[in-house]
Fold this sequence. Notes:
Blueprint: H1 9-20, H2 26-46, H3 65-69, H4 73-87, H5 91-111, H6 138-148, H7 156-169, H8 173-177, E1 184-185, E2 190-194, E3 200-204, H9 207-219, H10 247-260, H11 270-293
Antiparallel strand pairs: 1-2, 2-3
Helix pairs in contact: 1-2, 2-4, 2-5, 6-7, 7-9, 7-11
Amino acid sequence: MIPREKNPDFLNSFLDYSITILNKSPQSVKEYNYDLAMFLKFIKLHFKLSNEDDLKKIEINDISIDTIKKITLNDIHAFISYLTTKYHSKATTRARKVSTIRIFFKYLCSKAHLIESNPAQDLETPKIDKRLPKYLSLDDSKRLLEATSNEDNRNYERNYAIITLFLNCGIRLSELVGINLQDIDFSECKLTVIGKGNKERTIYLNRACMKALANYLEVRPKEGIKHDSKFSEKALFLSERKTRISNRTVESIVNKELLAAGLDTKKYSVHKLRHTAATLMYQYGRSRYKSFAGITRP
Length: 298
């Protein structure tokens, strides 16, 4: 997060509103801050309010609400054009910034009542080319599970449980890392996770997931677990340092297992495993998908 003292007061108020009222995650608010800081730096450059030519060196904490009131839709379009010509930003990146700017001006106009008219009211989202997401085939998914179940590999019970949840549940990376022991209900075969927007959702577990989790819990460390700000003692998945497993470690595990299965790590990733679960369920239906979901390690 950009230090609050580097932001103008109205920007900090918007960030507070996003956390408390919109219930946005800390990561989303961090992205809002980054996007809007870049936009406001451009405005100072665009309005010739700074002697700096380098956007990174421009300070925005002195920008006033009177300057914000002067911003028009054309000025916002100039910013989007600047992103394209100066930074060669992709359409998806520009679309995210457009979304942030739209929410920001709606807040200033309709909620904080700091400006009378909303210059972003008619702001359109850049057109994004639709591409079909890559996903593993049924055979590739089986190969990945078989490679992960190799008992010669260190932490194979943990890694197998992780891959199994990804392939069967369509779970997000952040959701998997955040799972606590108390979130698993073995009697009801379900798992509670915290998803986007800090919203709780329930995932029902098949026999493959239940067996993989049970096998892992048999070997999960019970002593020496760190008591830290991540509540590692409550975490389902632990690192070798006996702390809650990190996003980066999970990504490394998936990458290693993909390589072991002979799969292209440039083509597949953690996020692609999420697509795989949804796509195979759609393609094969629940009856045939059970044959894939029911794979267990030897």
